Amino acid sequence: MIKTIKARAFAKVNLGLKVLGKRPDGYHEVRTVYQTVGLADILQVSISSRDRGTRLECDHQGLSSGRENLVHRAAEVWRQASGFKGGIRLRLEKRIPMGAGLGGGSSDAAVTLLMLEHLTGNHLGFAELARMAAQLGSDVPLFLIGGRVLGCGRGEEVYPLTDLPARSCLIAFPGFSVPTAEAYAALDSLLTQSDEIRKITSLGKRSPFPLENWGPAENDFEKFVFARWPELAKVKGQLIRAGAETASLTGSGSALFAVFESAQQLSRAAGRIPANWKVFKAPTLSRSAYRRRLYI
């Protein structure tokens, strides 16, 4: 017997991102506010008790379908934890730009875990899914929750925040990626180890950016990224002048996002984006909307 399910793996933007310093384990201590948005990859998962192994098909030529793919890894991590012996077949349709700071790969991995649990009866529980998600990547756990989420630690320690009113979100992708390791290395040259990391509570109660409104979104990576690619800083300024409630780099880049109170404002702002960039229009997703729209 074959069971199949289809779902959306939504993107995220960072409403604020502060890098506090490098930790003894080599990772960086961060505080960030994640916000899920309506741009999504499409995933299909099938399981069969008569089949064996894991196989992934992907429509993006630049993305491996083998064990290096985070979706494939997520399926295997889940298989090991659940003891599932049957076949797992996955199909991934990529719509979220890769290397843009939008969390597409992380979302794909998290939704793979959720879909496999759904197909087999949700027997592992959220705590175990969260453990697996953190093992797969720093941004993966947030996509088990959706909506507006506070991220601490290396980003994997997540806490739901009260959702803000729905907004229209414009995402502008310049067509190139910012190497994450290079961005962190640049910040390391500006940061020094201090007691600040230990002073800030794990729940982020002393968060260095506002949590109760849209912005301004403060992203520490802008210091390096805008100096290296000044065209990004220029477009951010245009989005703010177009009436954005907040606008920022997301993650370590290279995509920019802007939040607008109305779709009309967003449409006018989209006309200011360079013609060779990719522009996406997507609503912000509350936690309930994220869950409601997850499965197709």
Write up this protein.
There is one protein chain. This protein has 296 residues and is an alpha+beta fold. It has 2 domains: 2-162 and 288-294, Ribosomal Protein S5, domain 2 (2-Layer Sandwich), CATH 3.30.230; 168-284, 2-Layer Sandwich (Alpha-Beta Plaits), CATH 3.30.70. It is 30% helix and 28% strand. The strands form 2 sheets. Strands 1, 2, 3, 4, 5 and 6 form a 6-stranded mixed beta sheet that branches. Strands 8-9-7-10 form a 4-stranded antiparallel beta sheet. α1 (70-82) packs antiparallel against α3 (126-136). The radius of gyration is 19 Å and the shape is globular.
Give a topology summary.
Layout: E1 2-22, E2 28-48, E3 54-58, H1 70-82, E4 87-93, H2 104-120, H3 126-136, E5 148-152, E6 157-160, E7 168-173, H4 180-188, H5 196-199, H6 222-228, H7 230-241, E8 246-249, E9 256-260, H8 263-270, E10 278-283, H9 287-294
Helix pairs in contact: 1-2, 1-3, 6-7
Question: Quick summary of this structure?
Answer:
Helices cover 30% and strands 28% of the residues. The chain is of the alpha+beta class and 296 residues long. Helix 1 (70-82) links the parallel strand 3 (54-58) and strand 4 (87-93).
CATH-derived architecture of the largest domain: 2-Layer Sandwich
Order of helices and strands: EEEHEHHEEEHHHHEEHEH
CATH topology descriptor of the largest domain: Ribosomal Protein S5, domain 2
- Mean pLDDT equals 90
Let me know the largest β-sheet. 6 strands, mixed
What count of structural domains? 2
Which CATH top level class of the largest domain fits? Alpha Beta
Radius of gyration: 19 Å
- Total DSSP helices: 9
Outline, from the CA principal axes?
globular
Work out the number of β strands: 10
Strand content: 25-35%
Global structural class: alpha+beta
**Approximately how much helix is present in the residues?**
25-40%
Q: Cα distance, first to last residue? A: 21 Å
Report the uncertain regions.
193-206
